[in-house]
Fold this sequence. Notes:
By secondary structure, the protein is α+β, with helices and mostly antiparallel strands. The chain has helices at residues 49-58, 78-82, 93-101, 118-129, 171-178, and strands at residues 187-191, 211-215, 221-225, 232-234, 247-251, 257-259, 285-286. It contains five helices and seven strands. Helix 3 (93-101) runs antiparallel to helix 4. The two termini are 18 Å apart. The relative contact order is 0.21.
Amino acid sequence: MLEMQRGGAGRWWLAALLMGGLWGCSGTEGPGNGGDAGVVDPGPDELPCDVKAVVAERCASCHTTPLKGYAPLALLARSDFQKPSPVHAQQSLGQRSLERMGNAASPMPPSSEPPLPDEARAVLTQWMEAGMPAGTCGSVPSGPAPTTCASDSFWSEASGTGATMAPGYACRSCHLQQSPNNAYFFMGTVFPSLHVADGCDPRLGSPSNVKVEILDAQGAVRLTLVPNEAGNFMSNTLQSPFPMPYRVRLVGPTGRSREMATPQTNGDCNSCHTEQGTGQTPGRIALP
């Protein structure tokens, strides 16, 4: 569904660097095939703590194992950044990542994502320019990310039905079976982060200031949907009011946005934007 090119973690490419999340990420690097790229003794395979924190938040949603969001390689440990770039064999992936962060034509994070905060950019730049020295905080774990629910409040069937029901679940698929008159073509949930648990009340701050803009094949805004207090959004017709395919731009309450890159035809957003993300999606439809 909404394969957002974050997105994404992308929040997300550090050979690529990113956001996330939100949406399927993309890049041009590929797995390395040997070479030293100037690295003679790689040393301990641990990241400095501040570097690990940035990589975990901004890169690892896509650059993980297994890969997500069309990311071509994992960036979880110091040795990953020390590998030679398959695009420029005389550069390490860390050096290539530093170059991509300043490349306006092919940036990292990708243009679909909010810019990397200055503080995070400074942490990565200083580390890479210093030769990527070893730290003491290990690597970023691979595999499924822990699910969260900051509100500690969950919807259940006892909570009743209505527009705030079942945040995170595949709304349209369920409605087609149980309430076809309410199986609106575009349905989904906006969450504050990528790996929120099914049914969790997201308690979005200022949801009325969040916009889910549905774009046609030419990039024109055809629908603007606003999530409710449970993060749920929906159109008001059973079929799309314009020809497929479509993409989505999510605008957060601060005005920052992220825009999915891969055209879609299925309007049941939560069917792909699950707790861990299915296909190439890195996770939930997450605020930029």
